[in-house]
TrEMBL record:
It is found in: Cell membrane. InterPro entries: Cyt_c-like_dom, Cyt_c-like_dom_sf, Cytochrome_c-type_DH, Membr-bd_ADH_cyt_c. Transmembrane segments: none annotated. The keyword Cell membrane applies. Keywords: Cell membrane, Heme, Iron, Membrane, Metal-binding, Repeat, Signal. Its main location: membrane. This is Cytochrome c. Residues 35-138, 180-287, 307-394 form the Cytochrome c domain. The keyword Heme applies. PANTHER family: ALCOHOL DEHYDROGENASE CYTOCHROME C SUBUNIT, BLL4482 PROTEIN-RELATED. Gene3D superfamilies: Cytochrome c-like domain.
Amino acid sequence: MLALAVAIGLFALALTWRPSIAEVAPPAASSFPAAAVARGAVLARLGDCAVCHTADGGRPLAGARPLETPFGTLYSDNITPDPETGIGRWSLAAFRRAMRDGVSRTGSHLYPALPYEHFTHVSDGDLDALYAFLMSRRPVRQEAPPNRLIFPLGFRPLLAGWKMLFLHKGPIAPDPDRSADWNRGRYLVEGLGHCGGCHTPRNLAGGEKRGQALAGGAAEGWRAPPLDATNPAARTWTVQALQQYLSTGISPDHSAAGGPMGPVVESLSRVPEGDVRAIATYIASGMGNEGGRTPTRPIDVPGRAAQAYPLGATLFAGACAGCHGGGAPMMGQGRPALGLATNLRDQDPTSAIQAVLRGIQPPVGRRGPLMPGFADALTDEQVAEVLSYARTRFTDRPAWRKLDRKVAHARKESAQP
C-alpha cells in the first residue's frame, strides 16, 4: 500500500511539474521596433493590464494591487522589466507560456486572476507586441506582498488540476459568415479583452460556466450585468450606443459606467475607434435585441413610490432629487435618466447599492457623471429605503427582497482592501 501511495504521489507530481525557462539578459528597450511597441501599447489597453497590475498610488505595471476573490486575497505581479522583482529576465517564450498556460518562468503555476483562460486565445503576433511594450517600460523594483488564501489553496500544484478542467486552449477561428468587425470583436472580447472574466458567472471552483458565457457575473463587489438577451436595459443596446458607452462611459439611453467598468472605459477611450466598434458589434449581436424595449419616455411615478416608501421619498428629496429629480439640471447634459439605468432595473441590486455607497467617478478625463458616495451619510436601512423608492418610482420591476441585508453585505465588500 505504501508503494502504491508513493507511486500515485509521484504520478501526481509529474502531472503538475513544469520546467523552468532559462533567464535572459534584460533586453534593451531600443532593441524592439517602435511599431511593435506602439502596437503593444494599444493591446495593453485592450487587455487592461495596468488596471490590475498597478496598486493604488503605485507605479504603473509594478503590481502589488490586492485582488479580492472568494478564496482569499491575491496580489498582482510586477510586470515591469525589473530584473529582480519583475519580468526583466523573462524570454519571449517564458512570457508566451505565462499568458497561454498560466505558468511562470520558474515553472510555478499562476493563479487565474491572470485571465489566461482568455489570453490563451491571443495570437503570437499580439503576444510578441505586448512583450515588446512591457519590456520597454521603465523598470520598477517592487515586491508583491504574500497572497492570503484559504488553506490549502496556497499550494500552487493544485492549479494544474484546475487548468485540466477549465483551461481550454487554442485560437479563435474566424466565422466566414460574419463581418470583419464581428470577427475582430469576438477575438478581442473572448481573448485579450477577457470580458467574460467579469461578465460570465463562475462555478464553486472559480471556473467560468462555459454554457453561460456573458450571462452576468461579479467584479470587485459590483455586479457585471449580462451581455446577452437577458440584459435588463430599458432600451435596446445598439452598436452605436455600446460604442459610445465603451469610449466615454455614458450612453444617454442606458447607463453611466461605475465601479470597475470605469477603468475599462478609460483604457478603451485611448484605443483605435475601429477596435471599440468591433467589440460593440460582437456584444450587440449576442444581445439579440430581445432584452430591450423602447418606451417613449422613462417611467416616473413619484406618488406610488412615496406611498410605498415614505422614508425613501424623504431621503431621495434631500440627497438625490437635485440631480435625479424631474427638471434637474444634470438631466439636460446627456446623462441617462434613472428610469433607463441598468443597475436600477437589474434583478440583482448589487451595483445600484455600490453606486450609492461608493459613488461614481468620471471615467475619461474628468468628463462625465460625478456622483458622491453616501456610505458615511446613510445607514444600511436608509440606503435600502431610498433604493426601494427609486426602483418603484422609475422602473416597472418588482421590489428587491431583503435589501437591507444586501446593503450590509455590499458595504462589507466595499471595506475590504
